[in-house]
Amino acid sequence: MAIKTSDLNAKLFGKANKRRATTPQEAQTAAKEQAQVIELAVAGEDLVSFELVRIPADKVESETVVFAENAREQSFLNEHALSDVLTTLKERGQQYPAVGRRNASGTIEVLDGSRRRMSCILAGKEFLIYVAEDINGEHAKFLSDVANAHKPLSLYEKGKEMQAKLDSGEAEDQKALAKIFQCSEALVSGALKAASLPLELLQAYPNVADLGRPTIVKLHKQFNELSDENKAKLLEKCQSDEGFVWQRSSAQGVARLTKEVSESIEEWIAQLAPRKTAAASKVDLVKGRATYTRKGANLALNLKKVDDTTMDEILKFIEGKLK
Predict the structure, then answer these.
(1) What value, to the nearest 5°, has the Cα angle with vertex 148 and ends 142 and 154?
(2) Is the dihedral of CA 228, 229, 230, 236 positive or negative?
(3) Is the torsion defined by CA of 136, 138, 143, 144 positive or negative?
(4) What kind and span of H or E run contains 30?
(5) CA–CA gap between residue 118 and residue 199 (Å, rounded)
């Protein structure tokens, strides 16, 4: 079930802080008011102190990275996928700081807030993040997974998580995955299909999270009908010096952009896919006596009740025509 941003922050900061917050509401207020230090019981265990760090807009990209095990595909984060965050950010600034840890090299790893991070980069805004010095890998993964719960992952991202469980042996089949992720087997199938598609193909779209199962299933079928050589040619068309496919379009709005991208990809696939010859249909030449079928450059003639003399005449005619 999706978690609202406010509820998410209450979950993250709802234990206690330096201001002695004792309720989720007080914790939300402390985070929103950007208290300088907040204490958080990560995964219900030891208290960890997080200090608020303000990173200038021109240093966000160089001084922070996204946690490597974050399930969200960072290459999908563009102005369309982040429109909900960007609107608020431009109008009122960053409402809730992100959450992260400092790694051995001194770089800040963003555990909760990769969408806010990229929004600040795109908007040229200061990035606010609560940073801890002593969070282990297990707790980092916990914070990252909880954070992702409030904004649904795309089918591709869900599929990657599902495929990882199949590869590790944690789930043996799609039925087991449906039980683990509490969804239908049809959704599991669609997600795994999405995860098997190359990033270059999905990056053609303005917001991959908007691609539903029917679109993914159709795209998967069309792509996998191509030869390896033609798959590579299609991906080359999706990538260019002018940007992704959606960036080359003059269409306005995510819905229209998505439709135009799908049409472009379908057109390219039609050009690359081997042409299917239409099935030959039988034509009556003389009812009950002669029929023929035409398939490409080939002609098949079927004759009934033909005596030897007529046969010789027909064969000589054909021989004369084809010499």
Answers:
(1) 135
(2) positive
(3) positive
(4) helix 24-32
(5) 19
Choose among 13, 62, 48, 36: nearest CA to 136. Answer: 48
Residue 93 dihedral angles phi and psi, to the nearest 5°? 80, 180
In tens, the pLDDT along 92-124 reads 888 888 888 998 888 999 988 899 999 999 999
pLDDT beneath 50, residues of the chain: 1-6, 8, 11, 13-17, 19-24, 26-27
Angle (CA) 285 287 288, round 5° = 120
CA-based angle 3:7:8, to the nearest 5?
A: 70
CB 41 within 8 A of CB 47: yes
Tokens, residue 179? 């039980």
Spatial distance between the Cα atoms of 82 and 87, rounded to a whole number of angstroms: 9
Residue 27: the pLDDT is 44
Cβ atoms of residues 99 and 12 within 8 Å: yes
Contact 52, 128 (CB under 8 A): yes
Rounded to 5°, the CA angle 130-55-16 comes to: 15
Alpha carbon distance 5, 7 (integer Å): 5
* Rounded CA separation 302/300 (Å): 7
How would you classify residue 229: left for phi > 0, otherwise alpha for psi between -120 and 50, otherwise beta? Answer: alpha
Q: How far apart are the C-alpha atoms of 63 and 201, rounded to whole Å?
A: 30
Collapsing DSSP to helix, strand or coil, 317 comes out as helix
CB 154 within 8 A of CB 209: yes
Phi-psi region of 50 (alpha: psi -120 to 50; beta: other; left: phi over 0): beta
Half-sphere exposure of 146 (CA within 13 A, CB side): 20
